[in-house]
Amino acid sequence: MNRISIVIYNITPPGGVERAAVNLANSLADTFEVNIVSLYSKQGQPFYPLDGRVTITHLGVPFTPACATTPARTPVASKPCALV
Question: With pLDDT > 90 as the criterion, what percentage of the chain qualifies?
Answer without folding.
Answer: 70
